[in-house]
Amino acid sequence: MSTMTVTESISPPLRAGPQDDGRCLGEVDKRRGLTQKEFIAEYFKPKKPVVLQGLMDDWPAMTKWTDEYLRTRWGHLDVPTGHCFKSEGTVKLAEYLDYRQAVERGEVDVSEMPPLYMEGWYYKNDPQDCNDIQDDYPILPMFDVDWFEKSWFPRYFDPRAHGLLIGAKGVYTKPHYDQLGTHSWNAHIRGRKRWAVADPMYWPYCYEKEAAQTGGYLPGFDMEAPDLERYPEMAKIHYWTSTVEAGEIMWFPTMWLHQAKSLDQTVGVTHNYMTGNNFRCVMGRFLGYRFGLMKR
Ligand SMILES: O=C(O)CCC(=O)C(=O)O
Ligand SMILES: [Fe+2]
After folding, report:
1. What is the 184 CA–ligand 2 centroid distance (Å)?
2. CA-based R_g, the chain, Å
3. CA distance 123 to 287
4. Residue 81 and residue 165 in contact, taking contact as beta carbons nearer than 8 Å
5. CATH superfamily for domain 25-291
6. Domain ranges of the chain
7. Per-run averaged pLDDT (10 residues), the chain, 296 residues
8. Is 60 exposed, middle or buried (0-12, 13-18, 19+ CB in 10 A)?
9. Which of 121, 154, 194, 215 has its CA 20 to 30 A from that of 160?
10. Which amino acid residue places its CA nearest to atom 6 of ligand 1?
11. Ligand 1 — pocket residues by CB below 6 A?
12. DSSP label at 179?
């Protein structure tokens, strides 16, 4: 399948909501063993999301990253937890692994609020010296175009770009675009996530300042099951969905709107990156935020 086809979503909804109102455009393409050339031609250049299969089977992380291993190797480190990139405190990674077991046993009340998520731990350049996380997975050739990583790129520009995400079942990240308009790949090491993604053309309907680009969980801010009394403009957003399994990589380009819910306990890595085709957007945003040239 070389293009996204418009089919009915076969995955279960996150929760009851209008699923048959025509806003869901279908499933994001899943492609097995895509070559770099095919990826560039069919997804990267046209700026179209894709789920990549069969490219991480031999990653050490796929076999090594059990709870026990994560606990032994990085359990003593301080990591942020919160909702939708709003930090609500720092805990030891081992404590978060205990917490998600408590969620699994039904000991945490998640009726009003999804569980706490250990997301937004951008471990690269963390003073705790945990760059060894990256020893357990390679950067695929198709993502090795990252200008942030090139030796000529100024080091003072230090985007928070390499993250480890560990989630309890049910953690949720609301719709947003990634920092500065970077491209993003999300490798699923353990567990499944239900994603919805939407073209940047739908930004005007995404409550950017009030909701999408501010941290914190907001009930009903969900493309698949929006609270249309609170967020009526969301009715205009058309989105693609995918249930992404362990061993699969979700890739989406600059400024695409995305949300994700963990259907199981999850472990994943995410990288945000810059190349020739999003450089102007990223640098423009960087300068804008830095020098207050742009309204947020
Ligand atoms: O995995 C998730 O919950 C979403 C993560 C995300 O949006 C990101 O890493 O940019
Ligand atoms: Fe994101």
Report:
1. 8
2. 18
3. 24
4. no
5. Cupin (2.60.120.650)
6. 25-291
7. 38 45 94 95 96 97 97 96 95 98 97 94 88 94 88 75 95 94 96 97 94 95 96 96 98 96 98 88 80 52
8. exposed
9. 194
10. 173
11. 119, 163, 165, 173, 178, 184, 186, 193, 258, 260, 268, 270
12. G
Cβ atoms of residues 266 and 272 within 8 Å: no
What is the rounded distance in angstroms from the CA atom of residue 114 to the CA atom of residue 261? 10
* Site to substitute for ligand 1 among 119, 122, 176, 267, most atoms within 8 A of C-beta: 119
Give the integer Cα–Cα distance in Å for 272 and 180: 10
Give the tens place of pLDDT for each residue, 129-169.
Answer: 898 999 999 999 999 888 888 888 877 676 778 999 999 99
Sheet holding 24-27, edge to edge: 24-27, 239-244, 193-198, 257-262, 172-176
> How far is 117 from 259, CA to CA, in rounded Å?
14
**CA distance to 83, 98, 100, 168, per residue, from 105 (Å):** 20, 11, 9, 11
Q: How far apart are CA 171 and CA 193, in angstroms?
A: 9
d(CA 180, CA 189): 26
Find the helix packing angle between 93-104 and 67-74, rounded to 10°.
150
Pure H helices in the chain:
36-39, 60-64, 67-74, 93-104, 279-291
Spell out the alpha helix ranges (H) of 76-192. Answer: 93-104
Q: How far is CA 296 from the centre of its chain?
A: 21
Neighbours of 44 (CB within 10 A): 20
Region of 132 (left: φ > 0; alpha: ψ -120 to 50; beta: rest) is alpha
Cα separation, 220 vs 122, in Å, equals 27
* One-letter amino acid for residue 6 of the chain: V
